[in-house]
Amino acid sequence: xxxxxxxxPEVDPDRPSPARIYDFWLGGSQNFAADREVGRRAxxxxxxxxxxxxxxxxxxxxAVRHLAAERGVTQFLDLGSGVPTxxxxxxxxxxxxxxxxxxxxDIDPVAVAHARHLLSDNPRAAAILADLxxxxxxxxxxxxxxxxxxxxxxxxxxxAVLHFIPDHEEPGAIVGAYRDRIAPGSFIxxxxxAPDIEHPQEQRDMLGDxxxxxxxxxxxxxxxxxxxxxxxxxxxxxxxxxxxxxxPDGAVDNTPILRTFGVLARKPDTAG
Length: 272
Description:
The chain has helices at residues 18-25, 33-45, 49-70, 89-96, 109-118, 135-140, 142-147, 171-181, 200-214, 223-229, and strands at residues 75-79, 101-106, 125-129, 155-159, 187-193, 234-235, 241-242, 260-266.
């Protein structure tokens, strides 16, 4: 078994981090100058980017509320959770059901450190430093095992994180590995950036700068790819749609956003 990630390593403030850049886009304060500089350049290159980030965050909130209030989900595993900010999963879920349990997983030490501080007085939530690309290591983590019962249904959240995994690392296989390990009746919620139809060159230029600055690959993929990763599950209505169109609370917000799709799927109660 791979070594479990239990400690927080040193942080290089001069190396931009996707988690901290995302925090900057959401108006958070847990980021460094290097993160803000990359974030500003990206937002200037693609004016619809910030709106997409907020729409994606709202999608997460609606998905968690739907799962907790309407599907009876009491366990949530948030992979690539990022820096804690407004509308965290445990806040949304535990407002509906105070007994809901949540585990956050991220590879960024700053994100995990702040999450642990936020959760210091919350016995039903935990944050662990681990690489979601290693499902066996994540699912064997002692804190995860202490918090969640994987023999019972869980909501697996992979929100705006799989586009950081290049094709050669087989993100679909990673999703499949988690799908195979979670209990029947569990749910998987994904969101993912897609190729922009109206401004393809601007998007390519933005991503080129982002990839060079962070050293992290960012891959846009169409919604059909997300659906293919969910083979063996039941994709829930309305399917893979733009995040601002997924079960909106009221009228759809028509503010232009960089194309980002969300989807919710359920693992069947029985195989086959």
